[in-house]
């Protein structure tokens, strides 16, 4: 994804202050007033690391240690121009290229053995305000924690992204992006104004292109494809610009949603020791029913975000988490009412019942975990689905069977995650994120440490998922209850006929009716199919 914009001025961003390239609008990192342009420091890189270099193994793995490739080189890049040159080199030499920003890919999409050049975008991590575009500029290597901190510090604004602060913006944004504020503010891509992308033309020329939300932009379709079409499909994103749809004026503090000042969080944890099927499925049913009733756009309850995290029985706990902007009117009462609704008819006393208020940024930038074993506890398999309403009775029974069987591990389980709200205010075709009429996401996961345990853990989560969706061929075929899956929770099993017997292809599960348009974008912007992986958007068939 390009750095030099085509047909418009480009702007450089640095954490050191204000920078401007030739003909570029000034980009302010911290503060909203005018600043005197300074000379841009040289961009990091490029650095080329090959096998035999002491850096090679250190840079090879992403977040999921199950997958490790062996590319000819890892190209660490620090600017759009460097990305253009790297992609051009890959095309010229006929080598498959893959892109990594934060490295939190759930599948083998960047570590495929066919990948010969791995582009590492992690040094491209600047966040700032581009006055020329009236939008916030975010490079793909910026982690979510860095994005939140910078937007809050400089302008008091934020985006409704995920709660894992080490995830990179590069893949998170392109796949749609969601988090604890999505019920209130929509998906991240509902605030995406533009993208800068390095693409490859039919003649093999790599170049940088800027595409925006403006309907008259001749590159508008490329912007649309990056509003949920997933990463690694059309080119290399080198910059995002963020400005809420409908935002007007030049005051940056009014161009994205205001960040909460304080967050009220409630956590209730129950032990599995006395858990019954009636109790557990009752909690899940109540959780789903509450979201069915309270997920209309504009409803006061869309300010509340809830997660029901259920470990396998050997993991020992069932956890209900709710959080809300503490300064919303009636926030404390909404949390009380939510907990009461989810636990109605549930008689087990929690082992922990904690309610506290904290600065919002503290929670959004706190590491997801800090246990000493986490440095090696990096093997995982995650599967997911959208829900338009609560799981059916048959599905709830399948959940109970699989969370109480003898094959699950202590770090296995599932989550029901609140969604809907303002997400549902956007039409399915307005962005590439097609699943708009939904109220929850379901996540099925298992995490382990040793390679020797791969087969057992993979079998458990795959069988669990297939059992829950047994009525629709082992996958969440869009219908009255299920609505496909989320491309950022990439799952190659959906494209495997051994695990998907529905006859509904993976691309329908991920993109629904938006897939043909994504294919047309693919044909225009990646006619040589340079950017591809196991779940990639395929060019349309000729004829």
User: Rounded to an integer, what's the Rg over CA atoms?
Assistant: 23 Å
List low-confidence stretches. 1-39, 369-373
Mean pLDDT: 91
Count the E strands: 17
Instruction: Specify the structural class.
Output: alpha+beta
Quote the beta fraction. Answer: 15-25%
Q: Mind describing the biggest β-sheet? A: 7 strands, antiparallel
- Give the CA-CA distance, first to last residue: 30 Å
Helicity, as a percent range: 10-25%
- In terms of quaternary structure, the protein is single chain
The strands making up the biggest β-sheet line up spatially as: 14-11-13-12-16-17-15
Number of DSSP helical runs: 13
Structural features, described:
The protein has 13 helices and 17 strands. The strands form three sheets. It has a seven-stranded antiparallel sheet with strand order 14-11-13-12-16-17-15. The chain has a six-stranded antiparallel sheet with strand order 1-6-7-10-8-9. The longest helix has 17 residues, at 277-293. With 543 residues, the protein is an alpha+beta fold. 23% of the residues lie in helices and 20% in strands. It has helices at 56-60, 80-93, 144-155, 169-174, 182-185, 220-225, 277-293, 331-342, 360-365, 393-403, 454-468, 506-511, 515-525, and strands at residues 27-28, 47-49, 73-76, 96-100, 115-120, 127-130, 135-138, 192-200, 206-212, 236-242, 262-271, 304-311, 317-325, 352-359, 379-387, 412-418, 440-448. β8 and β9 (206-212) form a beta hairpin. It is globular, with a radius of gyration of 23 Å. The chain starts with 26 loop residues before the first strand and ends in an 18-residue tail after the last helix.
